[in-house]
Write a structure and sequence with these properties.
Double Stranded RNA Binding Domain, four-stranded mixed β-sheet, RHF-like, Sigma 54 modulation/S30EA ribosomal protein C-terminal domain-containing protein
Length: 249
């Protein structure tokens, strides 16, 4: 890769939450600006979030989102200090940008659809809380494309419309870091590029899905929404609370 495409420095927005020093914020900004010089395309905008996580062993959380010529690239990391967290994010982004450049050379890049977000009213303190609701555009993807987007965006899972079945599905990383697929109804006769979870997605309300997530300790729960019949996901956030992802209407 060369930095010729990124001749214009991006506008870097740094957001902080909790006790984050100005020195940490400036260090993150400098690292992102340095990274943008080697991007495979122009980077008009970058967003950095520095906040405190719920894990006392790794309380510093850094997240960076880049817009690389219309394609979203994301990484996040938790570490004992913000310097370490930012350095981890920097290395992960370098790897993703290298993959992005390689794929761009063979013409397979398509702009990633942004997730629209809406804050939900907080539930009573004694109940599990869904504090963020995201919707995704119902673009049909092959599972391989969804797995690529998951990697590029540094997600643990990715909800999408499976082009093979024309139904909602989730691709995720197993404990070994390998991709696996969850379909609403698994069918051994339908081809898949990686292993498919054998059980069907449960039909639940959002409240029931949150209860299941809290009870099982899983990273996320993929379920069929009882009202809409579409695939939704509730997931654990770094702050210990929960988020919801659903298809855009």
């Amino acid at each position: 890769m060369t930095g010729s495409a990124a001749s214009v420095m991006p506008r870097v927005r740094v957001q902080t939450g909790g006790h984050v020093s100005s020195r940490a914020a400036e260090y993150a900004r400098e690292r992102v600006l340095a990274l943008s010089r080697d991007c495979p395309g122009p980077v008009p905008y970058a967003r950095v979030r520095l906040s405190r996580s719920a894990d006392p062993a790794e309380p510093a959380l850094a997240q960076v989102n880049l817009d690389v010529a219309g394609t979203g690239v994301r990484a996040q990391a938790a570490a004992p200090t913000f310097t370490e967290a930012v350095d981890l994010v920097h290395e992960r982004l370098r790897e993703r940008l290298s993959n992005l450049a390689r794929i761009a050379r063979i013409g397979r890049i398509r702009p990633a659809e942004p997730l629209a977000s809406a804050r939900n009213p907080e539930l009573p303190a004694e109940e599990p809380r869904v504090v963020r609701h995201k919707t995704y555009a119902p673009e049909r993807l092959a599972p391989e494309e969804a797995a690529f987007d998951m990697e590029l965006l540094d997600y643990d899972f990715f909800l999408f419309r499976d082009a093979t079945t024309d139904r909602d599905a989730v691709v995720f990383r197993d404990p070994a870091g390998l991709p696996r697929l969850i379909r609403i109804r698994p069918d051994r006769d339908v081809p898949a590029p990686f292993p498919v979870v054998g059980a069907s997605a449960p039909r639940l309300t959002t409240a029931e899905a949150v209860e299941r997530l809290a009870a099982t300790g899983a990273r996320f729960v993929f379920f069929v929404d009882a009202a809409s019949g579409r695939g939704h996901v509730v997931y654990r956030r770094y702050d210990g609370r929960y988020g919801l992802i659903s298809p855009a209407r």
